[in-house]
Design a protein that fits this description.
The complex is a heterodimer of chains A (403) and B (303). Chain A folds into two domains: 159 residues, Response regulator (Rossmann fold), CATH 3.40.50; 211 residues, Rossmann fold (3-Layer(aba) Sandwich). Chain A has twelve helices and 15 strands. In chain A, helix 3 packs parallel to helix 4 and helix 5 runs parallel beside helix 6. Chain B is mainly alpha-helical. Chain B has one domain: ABC transporter involved in vitamin B12 uptake, BtuC (Orthogonal Bundle). Helices cover 71% and strands 1% of the residues of chain B. Chains A and B meet through strand 7 and helix 7 of A and helix 1, helix 11 and helix 12 of B.
């Protein structure tokens, strides 16, 4: 027996040594200061090096929210020589503080981006704990001296998607698969419905809640039940292309269903059903933030970018605002009480959003809520601070009551 | 009408993985071995099915190999609990944790890929042309037909053949079975293996047809629902047909009923709430009558 234990310990020690040497190798490679490579500092590159860490809530391959952020990370990683990036994917809210600690202490990051609303509190606390690290939190509202907030809102694009859906839909019924009942999603649902009912005043949007950001199984059941209820437009805020796949399956069965790319290009999942979509270009935003950090001009602020800054994009895929197979139909369809085609109208609005002083906003009165109460007075444009805490739906939305 | 066709169709889609898992677990339990590792075996089945199908381009290869992987994993449990006579509950729980963790580890590189070689719906000629019934019952994935067939065959073997008597004898009184010349260990090993293969197939159905992607934790408690369903089905695979599709309907109705008077948050709890309710109601019955629960279930057999 003793012999066995001795042998066991020897094996254990050898094993742990091998493991230690393996991890040692890994980290030197990552830092890029292995024996074969020249040390960048010595060559006299003028500035410093910056390391940015990204914490993602979903997998980088989700083809939705996290994928869009990771594309932005790759963009800045390639654009700047002085920048090194690292990321952690699929981090749950409870694990966020631990991952921040690791990125600060082990990976030695100078800037940390946390890209989910649920990471806000832990980022806020970490910013106090590590005053020398810059934190940037996406989609929240809390800031500190060393913690900024940044966000791109696509609600204007959702409005354009609504216009397109209104023109294409035959049933006048759209289904919205909502991830979480938070103001951002409620704002998007309302913005979509404003556009949807502008083309077809009888149209309605039915909402199903998932209570989850990433869950293809729930997403599939919710979208199937919306199709069963007669919706021929599916729009969603869950981070996988599942809904597009469901719409494509129904389209292939002869039941034309329209859908919209969500945050990343999903057209290849539904070439016959993905009419347009709302896409991000986070790269521009990360470029802006990291350049400020590099030139020591960074100050904590609450950044909100819209279509005019080029980070919110209309399109089923990048570079194509509307899927070419639906363009003809949209050109033939006229806006109600007008000679203008829906296609021209969408493009006109899109251009207006791009103007520096933003010539139009979807949330312009008169707007009524689902109970018929006047929420935004005639001719008044709602402020973004009010929209950011919106807790009501415009007329035409049919959403289950949560509370 | 279309609403009913589509929603009923979804019941069958959502209930099939539960059915596959349940009929397998019934065999393991009937032979006297409680395997709580279904969740883990389903998870390994799901990832191996996905990985093999993705790499070979054929869903059938993925499906069959997923069954093998599930079976392989169950043999670990069988060895520990039958040969080494360890506590079955502890071993099963360990198997679940191991399986779920292993699947996440292997699956890391497959996250987010949308599977191309997936199972498609197959319309059975003539039968699928019957209005309503044809579209609901006879235009489904091939695995659906396999699952139904297996449930019937498994029932027949268990209750109408000599093999069934042998299996049940091992679960009721292994000592008597042994003295009648039955190799109890061999029977138990075989039945645990059947349970593992079925759990693996159930997992593969989820990743090859139900949600053709891989996500960590995609089994989402279905393995535990299966354990409850075995009890609800009273260890009878024909009754399992009913109970599994009843549970399948709950998965679907939690979304179909959103917008009615019921609160969505409450609806999302339905599968688990129903499982707990069923167990409470059923436990009262088990105290009084014989419900099919094997007498020797959960206890190691010592010669």
């Amino acid at each position: 027996m003793k012999k066995f234990f001795n042998l066991f310990f020897v094996v254990l020690i050898v094993f742990s040594l091998t493991l230690a040497s393996c991890t040692g190798n890994g980290s030197t490679k990552k830092d890029g200061t292995g024996p074969g490579e020249p040390a960048v500092e010595e060559l006299g590159v003028k500035g410093k090096k910056i390391k940015a860490g990204f914490i993602y809530v979903g997998p980088v391959n989700d083809f939705g929210w996290t994928h869009a952020h990771d594309q932005g990370r790759k963009f800045v990683d390639e654009a700047f020589d002085w920048l090194e990036t690292t990321y952690v994917e699929q981090v749950s809210e409870a694990d966020c503080p631990r991952e921040i600690d690791r990125l600060v202490n082990e990976e030695k990051c100078d800037v940390i981006f946390t890209t989910s609303f649920g990471f806000m509190e832990s980022t806020f606390e970490a910013a106090e704990k590590y005053p020398n690290v810059i934190f940037e939190h996406c989609s929240g509202y809390k800031t500190r001296d060393n913690m900024g907030a940044y966000f791109t809102d696509v609600y204007q694009i959702f409005y354009l998607n609504g216009l397109i859906a209104g023109a294409l839909s035959e049933s006048g019924k759209a289904g919205y698969i909502g991830a979480q009942p938070i103001p951002e999603i409620k704002r998007h649902i309302s913005a979509f419905t404003i556009g949807f009912t502008e083309v077809n005043p009888e149209a309605t949007t039915t909402v199903k809640w998932l209570m989850n950001w990433y869950d293809p199984a729930k997403s599939r059941e919710a979208s199937e039940s919306l199709v069963a209820e007669g919706c021929d437009v599916l729009i969603f805020s869950e981070d996988s292309p599942t809904v597009v796949e469901v719409a494509e399956e129904h389209t292939n069965k002869g039941n034309q269903t329209y859908t919209f790319s969500h945050y990343s290009s999903m057209k290849h999942y539904g070439p016959g059903s993905c009419a347009s979509g709302h896409l991000f270009d986070w790269g521009k935003m990360y470029q802006d933030i990291l350049t400020d950090v590099y030139t020591d001009e960074w100050v904590s602020e609450n950044m909100l970018w819209l279509v005019d800054r080029g980070t919110a994009i209309l399109g089923a895929e990048y570079g194509q605002p509307i899927n070419e197979i639906f363009v003809e139909e949209l050109k033939n369809k006229k806006m109600p009480n007008s000679d203008e085609s829906v296609y021209d109208f969408v493009m006109k609005r899109y251009e207006q959003f791009k103007e520096p002083n933003i010539a139009f906003d979807p949330f312009t009165g008169p707007l009524y809520d689902t109970d018929g109460e006047l929420r935004i007075e005639d001719g008044v444009r709602e402020s973004y601070s009010n929209l950011s805490v919106i807790d009501w739906f415009v007329k035409g939305v049919n959403a289950p009551k949560i509370d | 009408m279309t609403w009913f066709v589509l929603i009923f169709g979804r019941f069958l889609v959502a209930g099939t993985p539960l059915l596959l898992g349940t009929i397998g677990e019934i065999y393991a339990e009937k032979a006297g071995n409680l395997n709580l590792g279904v969740e883990g075996m389903m998870a390994v089945g799901a990832i191996s099915g996905f990985a093999f199908a993705h790499n070979t381009g054929n869903p059938w290869i993925g499906f069959i190999l997923a069954g093998c992987m599930g079976g392989l994993l169950s043999l670990v449990h069988a060895f520990v609990t039958i040969s080494l006579r360890a506590n079955q509950v502890v071993s099963g729980l360990a198997l679940t944790m191991f399986g779920v963790g292993l699947s996440g580890f292997i699956g890391n590189e497959y996250v987010g890929i949308s599977l191309v070689p997936r199972f498609k719906n197959v319309a059975i000629p003539f039968l699928s042309e019957i209005p309503f019934v044809g579209e609901v019952l006879f235009t489904r994935s091939p695995v659906f037909y396999i699952a139904i067939l297996l449930a019937v065959v498994f029932w027949y073997i268990m209750f109408r053949t000599k093999w069934g008597i042998i299996i049940r004898a091992c679960g009721e009184n292994p000592k008597t079975a042994e003295s009648a010349g039955i190799n109890v260990y061999r029977v138990q090993y075989t039945c645990v293996l059947i349970g593992g293969v079925c759990a693996g197939l159930a997992g593969a159905y989820i990743s090859l047809y139900y949600i053709p992607t891989w996500i960590d934790g995609m089994i989402a408690g279905r393995g535990w629902i299966v354990i409850a369903l075995v009890i609800l089905s009273q260890w009878n695979s024909l009754k399992a047909l009913f109970s599994c599709y009843l549970f399948g309907s709950i998965y679907v109705l939690q979304y179909a009923l959103q917008g009615s008077f019921l609160n969505p948050t409450l609806l999302l709890m339905m599968p688990y709430l129903t499982a707990v309710t069923v167990l409470i109601v059923d436990s009262k019955k088990t105290l009084k009558y014989k419900t099919g629960s094997p007498t020797h279930l959960g206890e190691p057999y010592i010669k």
